[in-house]
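Researcher: We are triaging several targets before committing to wet-lab work. For this one, the compound of interest is zinc ion. I'm pasting the protein sequence and the ligand SMILES. What I need is the predicted three-dimensional arrangement of the protein with the ligand bound, expressed as structure tokens, so it can go straight into our comparison scripts without reformatting.
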Amino acid sequence: MADFDLSAFEQRAQDLWKGSFEPDPSEKEKYYLNVAYPYPSGAMHVGHGRTYIVPDVIARFWRMRGRQVLYPMAFHVTGAPVIGISKRISRQDENTIRLYRDLYKVPPAVLEKFVDPLTIVRHFSDEYQRVMSSCGLSIDWRRRFTTVDPTYSKFIEWQWKHLYEAGHVIKGAHPVRYCTFDENPVGDHDLLEGDKAEVIRFTLVMFRFDDGFIPTATLRPETIYGVTNLWVNPGVTYVRALVDGKPWVISREAAEKLLLQDHTVTIEKEIPGTALIERIVSHPLCGEIPILPADFVDPDMASGLVMSVPAHAPFDYVALRDLQRQGRYTHIRPVPLIRVEGYGEAPAQDAVERAGITTQLDARMDALTQEMYSTEFAKGQLLEKFGGKPVRVARDEVAALMTEQHGSAVMYEFDTRPVVCRCGNRVKVKIIHDQWFLRYSDPAWKAQVSDQLKHMSLVPPEVRSEFDRTVDWLRDWACTRRVGLGTRFPWDTTQLIEPLSDSTIYMAYYTIAHRIREMAPDTLTPEVFDYIFLGKESKSLPQKVKLDAMRKEFLYWYPYNFRFSAKDLISNHLTFQIFHHVAIFEKQHLPRGMVVFGMGLLNGAKMSSSKGNVFLLEDAVKEFGADTVRMFLMGSAEPWQDFDWRNELVASVKKQIERFYITIHEMKDVAGEPKDIDLWLMSRLLEHIEKTTASLENFQTRQALQEAFFSIENDLKWYRRRLPEGSDGSRMLRSLCSAWVRLLTPFIPFTCEKLWQDIGGQGLVSFADWPVVDQQQKNLRIELAEELLLRTVEDLESIKKLIPITPRSITISIAPAWKHEIFKTIACAPDRNLAIPTIMKDELMRRRGKEATDAAKQCTTLIHRLPPHIVELIATEGVNERAVFEQATPFLEKEFGVPVHITDAESSRHAKSAGALPFKPALVIE
Ligand SMILES: [Zn+2]
């Protein structure tokens, strides 16, 4: 037998596979899957490994099912990150150098050249391709491109022309996340912290103070009527600043923020928070009120001071209560203004007292505030004296009143903080003018996307609500940047299209990527792409033959069947790509499905390159072998679940593959005559084929491996145990070998290519036919008999462990026929719990009395414990238990080393025999 040597298998298969995974349009039905292309700025770790191996397993599965499968790959190099990296390398930044030299193992001579950003992406694109290939990914590399290729830019220009003409691109002033250090809007991918933060629009309520104002931000302007005081943080130094020429008292942070939001701001002087305590402010809608101290007030939240509505805001109530418990400001009473079902006059007081909250710093305060906010908005109504309207109506009316008559302004702020840029700078909200936006807020566009989502299969189904929510929430998207790599914005060439906006329809570009390279970029007019992707004829199209070939590719492959990506892209990329597809492509070419992945952990902690908590994919392949890495990643969790990489577990997977390899070699030349147990083995194999197939059709890689590997291995263990002494099985094992190798090919293709040759398979196993199920070979009768024997052996083993004597004999007592009748009646009853009265209607059963009711109860328990398909088989097929055990007596005597007697329970001398049930004989060891 050849040695088990994974790296030799890898070498050999790589040679055999050269050029094999380069599909062209054909007569066969196609299966096109794709993955979010990587940004190649560092080495791949095992988390990336799973992202690309899952689709490969699926690709290999469908290829063996006879489909023409396309799995392409490209590299996304748009944007600024790589420019930042090259800058940090050129100024010899220690952390960056360490990351690239030590973790990513970039040779010194190459690292030197990283001062050029394009060198970084070129280097890592090649590395990605090399490592992906080493993992056995069946990618069509002819179609590889990067997003800065001139032909790709032409494609993007065409895309944007369509978006623009359809009214999806607008210019305007909008609040965006902004980094003042980079002088650039900040996307999700540019953030170290706070990628879930939303920009919220607050109303600033202007309280008159001295000769100027103190603004406080609120999301609930209608509560102005219940304001009893303002809160100031005594530990903070505030500023007096001229904002648009008027004096405001605000936090220093607020002054910086307002400057980015279309205000002129000049700081005049500092004012300690303590100096504001007990000063009086006024507002026309609530009168004169004092400023009081509270520690919860955050200077980094909006204006840095807040208004207090203790009747309706839990924080305000607790802060006031704290002061009053010290005997201060006891004359202040909460002013209720909203009535809401389920709460008393002052709902905040109710909620706080009910929850038993004792301090402002209680962790539950935020949740309580949120709950109050939602409940009052949904069900609250203003009291008669404040107009009597529902909160949801009053809110906008009061806001409008304050803006028109009482000088209220708008301030934008994040809903959660901090929000931190990759550069380390705090991100702020800036109103950008003359900025280009994609109008994701457009209800008509949203409706098109929602409609398309209904026609798509989403895996796992739970993600659907997240997609719906994203479509709902999406607002206009700043789609250009000043700095970075990428395609120039056609209507303003000082700007570049940002990374999440030039990566939305490239799945269509894959279909032509290898052919369009032959065309000169300057011939690629919008008309050319209109022809390829939309079939629009026009005069003077260049090189029509080439265009026709591309049109054919597109029509063959599109729409794609499934797109794969990590779940953190639902809120942006995965949803954006549907927006863009519906805006440009014809109905029949819109996306069909998406599979969303869970995250990767390393020894229980989140993988993160920047924190050094990664295990490089290449190191994993070298240490354990590519098949081991693949099988571990596919077997440890379903794709949408999080997985945890642990070296010790991976090592045990390698042993499993070796076991498989040895077993196939042991079985492949066996030539004995088939027995009943062979029929059992083959019948079981059909079930495993069916279940593996169904699992892979549903992307359940873990479930598929359970069936295709462990279930078959378990059956073989039993099979070998059941063979007569000296036998190593029958020639049927050869067809099991052939099916088993094919079932595991998607998971461990290198080992399987080698084994396929060893067992005399034709051609490459990667292109062999997937095993099919011949229903004729199913033998439920034999399966049931074997199941009975297997369970009895397990029961005997556990009894043997429990008794202290050395056994001298075993007696198996079989249940009488009338118990079988009872079993059958219960098993077939529509409601099993009501079956006993039915049974006792029978005259013969009634005569048996308690004996019969006891048996019925025991059968009910047994039926609940047995797998449903077994119960069904017992009830329908039935099994001759005596024959099974008599036939298996030599086996049982060999297993247990003592004489085995088979008796009928009712004629047995053992008291225990009375407990015999169908499919569960009474067992006596003496
Ligand atoms: Zn920054």
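Researcher: Any quick observations?
Model: Residues 201 and 412 are 5 Å apart (CA to CA).
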